[in-house]
Amino acid sequence: MIKPNVEDNLPEVLNRFRQMRNERKILQTIFDKISEDVNFQGLKLARRVLCVGPGNGEYDLEFIKRCVPKIDTLVAVEYNGNCLKELEKRCVECFNGTVKYRFYNSLFEDWVEDWTGNSSDEKFDVIIGLHVFYEMMPETRLKAFGGIFKKLLKESTGYFLFNSMSVDHLPGMCNIACEFEKHVQFTEDVVNVVALAQDMKSEVEQAGGMVVHSKDFITDVDCRDRHSDILALYRYCYSNVTEEIVEKMMKELVDGFGCFQISLFIAQKMLN
Ligand SMILES: C[S@@+](CC[C@H](N)C(=O)[O-])C[C@H]1O[C@@H](n2cnc3c(N)ncnc32)[C@H](O)[C@@H]1O
After folding, report:
1. Sequence ranges of the domains in the chain
2. 37-93, pLDDT tens digit by residue?
3. In the chain, fewer beta carbons within 10 Å around the N or the C end?
4. C-alpha of residue 241 to centroid of ligand 1, in Å
């Protein structure tokens, strides 16, 4: 989990960082394929959607627009209040008054523990958690996954969309962040937390779910002339990151591009 004292500018940091990546385009193609996939036609009837850590909602709304055309309720649980404000603006633009919203400014693991809804009507057809679960400590994630499969997701018709991120071999941003370890004092061991999240598929099974679809992809991060953005991003995660350290780290990137290796998953509740 990320430190709250650097939260104020998160919507801006996220926006700028997303602009450096080609991930949105890749996701659009993947989401279009999912919407056409005969195995996921149930999404066309889905109405209740829960977004976990949606940030500004950029990717979550892409998925909803392409794959969940009949949405009528969107619940978001997001730790950053400024992101929730930005999400609200985007929802108004995106849905034009056709969707009911409920936003909770909370840690998901706390929110799910307090959730008491029981009836099938209160459960969710779709739960989206992109770039959020790998930031949790394993025990927190297991609790969160347990809540999703045991409490929140509808039985056979519920879908949970989430992703993991690899920290090996590629000239990835994670590897660069590891390099920072030599230069700065960690406020939080973000990279190591990501490294602990390499087997989310079996964590999902342990929590009562099963992965029914997966897609691996690599997304580029254009770091050319974006030092101030990189600086803002890493200052978000680590203390004491300076212009000079960023400069040095960026030199290690081939052609000024970094990348992330992502695995995207769809899971359902395991049938008894
Ligand atoms: C890396 S951003 C990803 C945002 C968005 N899902 C995306 O893919 O663009 C992680 C988001 O999750 C939120 N977050 C992190 N841990 C959380 C938690 N335990 N509960 C709720 N929100 C959390 C952060 O505030 C941030 O907005």
Report:
1. 4-165+192-219+263-269
2. 999 999 999 999 999 999 999 999 999 999 999 999 999 999 999 999 999 999 999
3. C
4. 22
Length, in residues, of the chain: 272
Q: What angle do CA 191, 59, 259 make, to 5 degrees?
A: 40
Nearest residue by C-alpha to atom 6 in ligand 1: 54
Nearest CA to ligand 1 atom 19: 107
133 lines ligand 1 (CB under 6 A): no
Give the dihedral sign, CA 183/186/190/196.
positive
Ligand 1 neighbourhood includes 135 CB (under 6 angstroms): yes
Give the global pTM.
0.92
CATH of region 4-165+192-219+263-269, choose from 3.40.190.10, 3.10.450.50, 3.50.50.60, 3.40.50.150: 3.40.50.150
